[in-house]
User: Fold these one by one.
Assistant:
Number 1:
Amino acid sequence: MAAEMALIKPVSKFSPRIGNPRIPVGRRFSTVRMSSTAAPSPAKPKKSQKQEIQETLLTPRFYTTDFDEMEQLFNTQINKNLNMDEFEALLQEFKTDFNQTHFVRNKEFKEAADKIDGPLRQIFVEFLERSCTAEFSGFLLYKELGRRLKKTNPVVAEIFSLMSRDEARHAGFLNKGLSDFNLALDLGFLTKARKYTFFKPKFIFYATYLSEKIGYWRYITIYRHLKENPEYQCYPIFKYFENWCQDENRHGDFFSALMKAQPQFLNDWKAKLWARFFCLSVYVTMYLNDCQRTAFYEGIGLDTKEFDMHVIIETNRTTARIFPAVLDVENPEFKRKLDRMVEINEKLLAVGETDDIPLVKNLKRIPLIAALASELLAAYLMKPIESGSVDFADFEPQLVY
Ligand SMILES: [Fe+2]
Ligand SMILES: [Fe+2]
């Protein structure tokens, strides 16, 4: 998994307070327990784990699912749609392990990190930290699926385990990147202390498919941009994105195969509504998140909104191959709606920063939340694009004469 995903809800400001910027680089090394928490301070009383994890609605999430239902879905005795030849072929591809020797660091990393200072340094750390959390989230989910499906479907289980290998590698590489900034994410702590969001298997499929594909498009777009504009190549991690994103692409293709094996999740009106909902959720989350962090994208020479729209359009085109309906993101009205959501979100954030008492803040938020909800609904109700290429005729009961 590479991208962040959260259900659409009004958002609060994500304000990382990592380390102390006043302490010179090289004289501090902190273990970060969660994005939006301060590095532990000996002067303050020790907080409980629960207090230290401050989830925000746009923070990358950890997921769990109904593993019993998953076992049913991948039982070849029950589900005759499972194309085991296709899964065997995918397994061989994962076993080849194309990126086994790809993630090797060199001294350029630390040297580059030491040259990044000012506000960009802070935002860079946040990028590494959020990306690491998102990758690690994929690792945890795939590892558990690999473990739980071992008996029912060893081939699918092994693919999940190999995908968790990839995600562990990605998360580890990003965490090593944090060490260049004298920080490290405490992944063991996160595993135990973070809340897990429960999604039924069908929602896990929609969400992870989109997450992998949007991750692919984000990584490859940044890679190509920096290849053409090397003057913005301020940290070597981006040079690894070309091969890295191929992992995400393979992960997405595996979820595509999984969904084809579960045609009930793709071929009815409910599937169309959910497919559009998940597309909207993922796109809006990314857009609002990134518009709060334009300094990062501008720091590497990108226009945040242009970058996001490119990623959204490409992801949507890819997704249209498998989802039964997608949003008409190429209609200019869709972007106009996203931009209005950004404006409303900025006003919401501004309310949070005033000195008003909580009651007044909440009263001020009500019309803004209503406006955001109305934009979301309007975007959801825009005329969708009917899509999907699965040949469902093969799965439908045939008349026998
Ligand atoms: Fe990944
Ligand atoms: Fe992935």
Number 2:
Amino acid sequence: MDSIFTTIFCILFPIILSTILLKTLLKFLPSGYRKLPLPPGTMGWPYIGETFQLYSQNPNVFFASKVKKFGSIFKTHILGCPCVMISSPAAAKLVLVTKSELFKPTFPASKERMLGKQAIFFHDGAYHAKLRKLVLRAFMPESVKNVIPDIESLAIESLKSWDGGLINTFQEMKTYTFNVALLSIFGKDGIHYREDLKKCYYNLEKGYNSMPINLPGTLFHKAMKARQELAKIIANIIAFRREMKHTYTDLLGSFMGDKEGLTDEQIADNMIGVIFAARDTTASALTWIVKYLAENPSVLQAVTEEQEAIVRSKKESGEESDLSWADTKKMPLTSRVIQETLRVSSILSFTFREAVQDVEFEGYSIPKGWKVLPLFRHIHHSPENYSEPEKFDPSRFEVSPKPNTFMPFGNGTHSCPGNELAKMEILVLVHHMATKYRWCMMGPQTGIQYAPFALPQNGLPIRLSHK
Ligand code: HEM
């Protein structure tokens, strides 16, 4: 018996001793030589990982249970990729801003092909900076100011067409936001091409989330064909503009600027990309606002009073009834409703980045090629950042949120360049909706769809009528 213990001791003792020595040595080695552990977490099933757990329920439940178990940085496996999820505001800032050079934007190859490989989202460095300058030029407040009258016409036209009927809010808002996107990209020229662009874009959309099998008959194939059609229409608009030799202040004008030297293909990829970025996101935000206003009569009342005061003061001073930029600055309460809607609904639950090299991050190692996901939704719904986070309460924005806790438009070099336009088109539509119409929700009102954007169930059917 003794000899068995002696043998075990002789084998185990050196192993234990060398492990302790190695650990101690590693602690004192410079960080470059040290191998940090992977973040804690579980990887789920081979290949499928935990995709189903994330996408089959409210993502808040998935995030909150992981954070409780593993802390604010944890590993998982979704959509066929190993990932690290980041749920603290400070760490999200590191990924998106401070150390953004270590984390590049990443999308599945099929999505890149469909939207166009040269589109702004897929790039970093000099090419990205150049595109971003051009996009920001077209969407900065100075430029957005000029399109307010046209946005207003679109809002009035949309509301009239919904009057008296039962509508699917999200579907109708998509038409409105699509038309506003075309306006800001192609100016008034967009109207001539609206129907053709719409038809192609809808075919592209149908195949966007399909299996990427490019064979005749598949949704993916139809979407790729629709994409080519879109590029052709855009090429025609570009050719027409070259002949006209006018100066245009819309997005296409910004991209066609003489000095920019972009190819027609680069321009088309970016125009399609911007429509994609602008339409469903803003339509989703509008759908949530309609829901929250219907559910919170006192907030709706306050918004209506704020908007009616603007109409009244314009009448009294003999001003034109059209909304001006200055009017939109007199809507602080409505603006807080937009902020709170964006927080609660967190339309983009998270974004994707990829580690460009092995990265040491907050005491963990993130291997090169792993996806890194800052969790906007979790940050917006954490009681550490917002008291009673599930409650819709626009007054919380009377005080600025803590740094890096409010990121509906992202953060850093890839943050949303269209945010001013998005807020403007929402304000204009809410102005006319609250002052002239009433609406009620039809059907179940509690369900939420999450793929890919958070949306009220069935797109929120409502009945809307003139007051
Ligand atoms: C409420 C509506 C909107 C929301 C919530 C939203 C949200 C976002 C977010 C979170 C990002 C950053 C993604 C990332 O870092 O990976 C982004 C990027 C972007 N958004 Fe928006 N967006 C909205 C409306 C718009 C509009 C109206 C436009 C254009 C007219 C637009 C154009 C873009 C573009 C071009 C990018 C990519 C920027 C880059 O990669 O540098 N978005 N958006």
